[in-house]
Amino acid sequence: MSVKWILPLFSFLFVLGSTKIATSGSSEMMTLKIAAKNSFERTLVSNTGASIEFVKDNYIIVRALLEEKTAIEKLGLKVEVESSLSNLQFPSKDSEYHDYTELVQKLRQMNQKFPNYTSLKSIGRTIEGREIWALVIRTNPSTSVLPQAVFMGGHHAREHLSVDTPLRLADWVLESYASEDARIMALLDEREIHIIPAVNPDGLEFDISDDQYKTWRKNRRRNSDGTYGVDLNRNYSYKWGTGGSSSNPRSDTFKGPTPFSEPETQAIQSYVKSLTNAKILLSFHTFSKLILYPWGHTNDRINKDKDLQVYQKMAEKMSTWNDYRPMQSSGLYIASGDTTDWAYGELGIFSFTFELDPKEQWEGGFYPGDEIIQSVVDKNKEPFLFLLDYADDPYRVLNFGIGR
Ligand code: 0X9
Ligand code: CA
Ligand code: ZN
């Protein structure tokens, strides 16, 4: 409600500051191609604060500040400036993606269409005052405690597909339930699904403002030095600031001044902690087609052997459906303070990060176009149901000969 009048106020303030933000964002940040060949070298790069956009066998593409570029060069790695990629500009024919207003509208519609199966909750407000919404799907009318699974998206502003995917998955299970799909009915009646499609709606809106994508990543906190944004996927508390994040507020991987300094991560923290029976969590990101599991802050494997087996078995099984590559997060690069290290390390919840489609920058990178949405949703339906299924007891996967 109050968002309606808060927004005009903020957009007025933005007019004053926006020229500076826009130019500083694009002129300071550059896109680099770096000859880093393995996770050790990629970790050295991520430790400078540069954000790795995608990983190839022999090189990586990163976005970096000038001082981060200098630090990377000091490592002895070959660095090339990629001017062609820094000018990413997309036609605005992406209307199937949901902006914040459309997202709230869609969530309300679903809630109104299925009042007995859903509830819509605000779990907190962003730094600019937008509500962060959770859609709870519970078809079972009893008051019994059911196994809970949490799905979220939109930590990173430019990763719009990570918002629309959980949104469409929610819509799909509800419609399937309503059309009496026997398998979906049996599963949903024994589970509680918590879907938070947009953790960072301020960033989402900023990224699409002025009719042109801004490749924005962080939230919209005004930092102490006047720059904007904390990387929400570096702001969680578990092993916060132990590598692969930056203390430079201008950096794209700025971890924030303290763990959980941001209202968005605080909202997730208190919401997930309030769930008494959550055993599964999935955080959608883009892009690269990966299934990632802890740890992300260290190359060490998780020390509970049984847990590692659960992770590996689940990841491998899910990859048979979506064809994403399963791996430990730090194999991509070390980064501390992400959602899944926290949810597993702090709360013992089996937690995954999916890096959705596409695989490559040339296939659209963060902006694949809205024609891709349905196929990405379709290939992730089975992984979604699988996680939901095992939310009662993830260790159950060890009992069966599933896998490739
Ligand atoms: O860097 C991230 O936050 C995620 N990649 S993204 O391109 N969506 O920004 C990956 C997080 C995986 N976790 C770790 N590597 N720790
Ligand atoms: Ca739209
Ligand atoms: Zn991301």
Q: Would you kindly provide a brief summary of this structure?
A:
This protein has helices at residues 3-28, 39-46, 66-74, 83-86, 100-113, 161-178, 182-188, 201-208, 263-274, 305-322, 329-332, 339-347, 373-379, 381-389; strands at 30-34, 51-55, 60-64, 79-81, 118-125, 131-137, 148-152, 192-196, 278-286, 290-293, 325-328, 350-356.
Description of the molecule:
It is built from 14 helices and 12 strands. The protein has 404 residues and is of the alpha/beta class. The strands form 2 sheets. The chain has an 8-stranded mixed sheet with strand order 5-6-8-7-9-12-10-11, with helices on both faces. Strands 2-3-1-4 form a 4-stranded antiparallel sheet. β2 and β3 (60-64) form a beta hairpin. The protein is globular and about 60 Å long. The chain starts with a helix and ends in a 15-residue tail after the last helix. The site of N~2~-sulfamoyl-L-arginine has 14 residues, from α11 and β12.
- Strand tally, please? 12
CATH topology of the largest domain: Aminopeptidase
Low-confidence stretches: 1-26, 84-91
Give the CATH H-level superfamily of the largest domain. Answer: Zn peptidases
Distance between the termini: 50 Å
CATH class of the largest domain: Alpha Beta
Q: How is the main sheet built?
A: 8 strands, mixed
Question: Any ligands, ions or cofactors bound here, and which?
Answer: N~2~-sulfamoyl-L-arginine, calcium ion, zinc ion
Mean pLDDT reading: 91
**Fraction of residues in β-strands:** 15-25%
- Give me the Rg, rounded: 20 Å
- H/E element sequence: HEHEEHEHHEEEHHEHHEEHEHHEHH
Number of helices: 14
- Helical content band: 25-40%
Biggest sheet strand order reads 5-6-8-7-9-12-10-11
In total, how many domains does the architecture comprise? 2
